[in-house]
Hints:
The complex is a heterodimer of chains A (131) and B (641). By secondary structure, chain A is α+β, with helices and mostly antiparallel strands. Chain A has two domains: 39 residues, no CATH class; 77 residues, 3-Layer(aba) Sandwich (Glutaredoxin). Chain A has six helices and four strands. The longest helix of chain A is centred in the middle third of the chain and has 12 residues. Chain A is elongated, with a radius of gyration of 17 Å. Chain B is α/β, with parallel strands linked by helices and 641 residues long. Chain B folds into five domains: 97 residues, Glutaredoxin (3-Layer(aba) Sandwich), CATH 3.40.30; 211 residues, NADH-ubiquinone oxidoreductase 51kDa subunit (Rossmann fold, 3-Layer(aba) Sandwich); 87 residues, Ubiquitin-like (UB roll); 88 residues, NADH-ubiquinone oxidoreductase 51kDa subunit, iron-sulphur binding domain (de novo design (two linked rop proteins)), CATH 1.20.1440.230; 77 residues, Alpha-Beta Plaits (2-Layer Sandwich), CATH 3.30.70.20. Chain B is built from 25 helices and 19 strands. Chain B has a five-stranded mixed sheet with strand order 12-11-15-13-14. Chain B has a four-stranded mixed sheet with strand order 2-1-3-4, with helices on one face. In chain B, helix 8 runs antiparallel to helix 9 and helix 8 crosses helix 11. Classes of the chains: A alpha+beta (131), B alpha/beta (641). Chains A and B meet through helix 1, helix 3, helix 4, helix 5 and helix 6 of A and helix 2, strand 9, strand 11, strand 15 and helix 18 of B.
Amino acid sequence: MIQVMLEVQSENNWLPKETLDRISERLDVPLARILHIATFYKAFSLIPKGRHGIHICVGTACHVRGASRILDTVQDQTGIKPGETDLDLKFSLEVVNCLGCCALGPVLEIDGKTHGKMTPGETSDVLKNYE
Amino acid sequence: MSRINSPAELEAFRKDILSKRDPNKPCITLCSGSACHATGSGEVASSLESELEKQGLSDQIEIRKTGCHGFCERGPITIIHPEDISYFQIQPEDVPEIISETIKGKKVIDRLLYTDPETTENIVQESEIPFYKHQERLVFGSNGSIDPKSIDDYLAIGGYSALQKALYDMTPEGVVAEVKKSNLRGRGGGGFPAGRKWEGSRNDPEPIKYVLVNADEGDPGAYMDRSLLEGNPHSVIEGLTLGAYAIGAHEGYIYVRQEYPLAVENVLLAIKAAEAYGFLGKNILGSGFDFKVIVHQGAGAFVCGESTALMTALEGRVGEPRPKYIRSNIKGLWEKPSVLNNVETWANVPLIINKGADWFTQYGTEGSKGTKIFSLVGKIVNTGLVEVPMGMPLRDIIFKIGGGIPGGKAFKAVQTGGPSGGCIPEELLDLQVGFDELTQAGSMMGSGGMIVMDEDTCMVDVARYFIAFLTDESCGKCTPCREGLRQMLKILTRITEGKGKESDIALLKDLAETAKEAALCALGKSAPNPFLSTLRYFEDEYEAHIKEKRCPALSCKELIAYYIDPTQCKACMICARKCPADAIDGGKNKIHMVDQDKCTKCGTCYEVCPSRFSAVTRISGAPIPDLIPEEERIIRKKKKK
């Protein structure tokens, strides 16, 4: 069932209520259990996501290289906190624990494109490129 | 390709592959691991392909996209065979030159070579570079020479010969005995002897058994399992199949993080290829042994790296751990005997079966045999994956292989074992790495993350960081972990904000002891380690935060202020222009000043201030000097006579 939900998530970027109802019906699993899983695992989202997904690595290697400063800058610029999406659905902000590119830390990833060795100044410049 | 049904057929097939390969044919290998991909190895690959085509060399020169070489700091990495010339940090613009100069002209391009920072000599061969010279790459070595998407590449380096040996020349008990004799200990965290785990499952009368791969590598800063799965998936599958044969399992699962798309892709491809060749499925190599492997993608939960939580997640439920009154090798997945080992452990198994336990035990120390892959990250010159024999002193790993600390800063501590591990200070740097040695020092081996910290890293903040991570990842099932960690986080945050009380340390110790004694699983039991080990070695930093409201590492935002020294400032305007908060007042020929109310303490000014001025400083635990009056801020340049 987790595999089914992962597929829906990657297709839609979030899990709409109707889809969960349908999974519950087709797989004959109570909705409560599906919601338990949907809220437990980080990969699932019950709200729609913005056009651009920002992932900021706050893994240990990026942390010691100053990831929290990058996070602060992004929060100031977009006005959203990790886990949130802005009102016009432009950005969704998530923090992740390791993107596995520790050599490039601190790392910022937007829509799958990795921006390595970031500074707060460069972060603002990068964000300006997205509409 | 048809199935291979006997050892003779396998050998004939292997010979056939080798005979078609000309060792003298030029071949360009390009690292395509995730880190190199992020630095642009994808673009380099397409540029190589189009350039070769343009010059009409496509069929004379082979391009092989390999797995991770480990030296991620210098990616993308290219090696030109047969001369073994290694080039680092290749960009698409370099490709035409490489082909015309090196491939056609057989000349080495100096500017793309690795330069030894000490001798300033250029080094041509990868194996001569200090980063590699001190390593012992038993498990990880093939990563850089084979294409993970090609099973023929794996067969060409002797792949699946261990499986053939086990199925035809050894009994399942013999395989267990060999692994037991090798004293292979689990590479995922606990360090439990794999042979004993296997034996328990082997001896259980229950007919249905499982073998599982733990590839839910959630430790921040550790990525060796991902690199192995991405770069050499067949070695893990072969190890898993050997384990299945040894304990009598016919079904295996690979639990891999969904955040590792390339690893998932390569493993799925490898399973398909192995099934087509008859290394998986029914009647493997004609021996009558059946085994199939299923890949399960995790949905993002750190606790699922814990053995019982991983099994509940595999069962399609929420990944919460369960009490281990009965070990999971007796009652594990669906209450059946299940052997769970991590990626690196499984990848060791084919080597042990092929070369024997005696060969394996020559590496390592008394208690810890073989090699271990560490991911060396943080404040270190050569970031990357390193494989060293157990027993190597930490100092050698960090300074000989890692090249020390960048920017001439002083080493402060190295954090091992992921969030549940601990920090090891400079005075213990001669400690030999091994399971028991690290545990004694208050840390642990864990999965092999090694995060180097320099003088700018605040140890209280590090403890706060790990407790925050674990609070977030706690599944919430047992109270000491769910509530205890939350309170510890509150107190530690308070300390880093300069609001700590003198009684806080005793309170933190109390909470830590409770979680250590009473938490249900390894996550909770080891969660206080980062706090306890930093307190053990860096108590003075805690005291400075609490009593003097001072952060000795000048890193805790609430306790520091940025200040521009008026005697040093040359009014170059760099910091004023770069400041994202417009908190710097100043102009041409006018000494700059930080408006403390506007300052967000992002540190940009500190970084951009030219080192010949070094006017921006950080102050902690002392008042900020008064601003100088307006009229004194004008800098008058002396007129040239």
